[in-house]
Each structure stands twice: as structure tokens, then as C-alpha cells.
């Protein structure tokens, strides 16, 4: 993904969310709590068993990515 561009699909959002979660050292439980979803929901998303479909949830994920991406720039 080019620098400055955001994820566009639900799967890209989840992949980015998972990367940031791991970089922050958060468990799925902590991340789920901060997103306002259950552990099992986040776990299903990360395993690719389901994807968020609600615009509200996708917006929350986008805000999460934007906030923590700034706090934890990619190393490379």
C-alpha cells in the first residue's frame, strides 16, 4: 500500500488493524475492548471467517488505524 493511502476493503482494514495490534503488543481481548466488539468477533475477523459489514464498525476501525498508525509509525 503506498504511503499515505488508507485501506479500502474490509479485509485490508482488518489486515492493517491486526498489524497495528501486534505492533502495540495488544492481545485480541484488549483490542476488541478498545474497538467495542467482542473478542470472538475480532478473532473471527482476524482469522478471515467473517468481515465487518456495518459502516459504523468500519468507520471505528478506520479511526483506530489512523490514531495508532500515527503513534506507531511503520519500521522499515
Ordered list of secondary-structure elements with their pairings:
Blueprint: H1 10-24, H2 28-35, H3 39-46, H4 55-71
β-strand number: 0
CATH-defined topology:
434 Repressor (Amino-terminal Domain)
Task: Output the number of helix runs.
Answer: 4
**Beta-strand proportion:** under 5%
Radius of gyration: 12 Å
Looking at the overall shape, the CATH architecture is Orthogonal Bundle
Shape: globular
Biggest sheet features: none
Helix-residue proportion: 55-70%
Level-1 CATH class name? Mainly Alpha
Poorly predicted parts: none
- Would you tell me the overall average pLDDT? 85
Mind telling me the CATH superfamily name? lambda repressor-like DNA-binding domains
Characterization of the model:
Helix content is 63%, strand content 0%. The chain is built from four helices and no strands. It has helices at 10-24, 28-35, 39-46, 55-71. The mean pLDDT is 85.
Which short descriptors sum up this protein?
single chain, 76 residues, mainly alpha, 434 Repressor (Amino-terminal Domain), 4 helices, 0% strand
Summarize the structure.
By secondary structure, the protein is an all-alpha fold.
